[in-house]
Amino acid sequence: xxxxxxxxxxxxxxxxxxxxxxxxxxxxxxxxxxxxxxxxxxxxxxxxxxxxxxxxxxxxxxxxxxxxxxxxxxxxxxxxxxxxxxxxxxxxxxxxxxxxxxxxxxxxxxxxxxxxxxxxxxxxxxxxxxxxxxxxxxxxxxxxxxxxxxxxxxxxxxxxxxxxxxxxxxxxxxxxxxxxxxxxxxxxxxxxxxxxxxxxxxxxxxxxxxxxxxxxxxxxxxxxxxxxxxxxxxxxxxxxxxxxxxxxxxxxxxxxxxxxxxxxxxxxxxxxxxxxxxxxxxxxxx
Length: 286
Hints:
Layout: H1 4-15, H2 19-24, E1 36-39, E2 56-62, E3 66-74, H3 82-97, E4 101-106, H4 110-116, E5 120-122, E6 130-132, E7 135-137, H5 148-153, H6 155-164, H7 171-182, H8 187-200, H9 205-215, H10 224-244, H11 251-258, H12 263-273
Parallel strand pairs: 3-4, 4-7
Antiparallel strand pairs: 1-2, 2-3, 5-6
């Protein structure tokens, strides 16, 4: 199943294709900064019934070395089947576009990162034939950016670093630095960074840290995250009012309240909850 964390790990390169050249510095490669980038179709399916779909595919144009393709894969765990899939991606893209092809795998744990960097070979041990050795970005080589000024200098890189270190004990310091850097950043930059970071953290404890940091001041920002926090806060207060008034809140009622995303309904329910004689009274007009 594709998770929000999985999506953020590769879509962040669609948002800022130049991020790859900055990340490559930490991966032991020297990739020139692109002077242009084009998002290409990610469906690598042939006529056969087997679907092949890369996570993100970009054509990056450089001033000195010409264009090349960048395939970005977000990998959450070791998967032996990926070796043949990635080899297929690289070979297919090279064949179709006749351009050099790079494969970047983004991971969030050391075990997966160590496996993903290969080398992975095709063929008997004596005749490997095809060797695949992706670049891997993960907690082993992504910087831990804990200085707000450093985060402010490259917000997208700081977001990716936070995502890569999502499971690390020190991720809270990284998130605090990123949060501080966002306070005076242009709004058009703030929006996607908050989104990518929130989704990239997945369901790890760091997600709650990030939500709390964002909840301190959301006046400058409207997004699914801000709305989700407001909805949860409104639901929590409404349930508390009902419980303090001595009502027995059933699971159905609790689910109805917590799944609501209509602020006007919350307001109406709260008003009725203050004088209702029974829980059903708060839903009387629906």
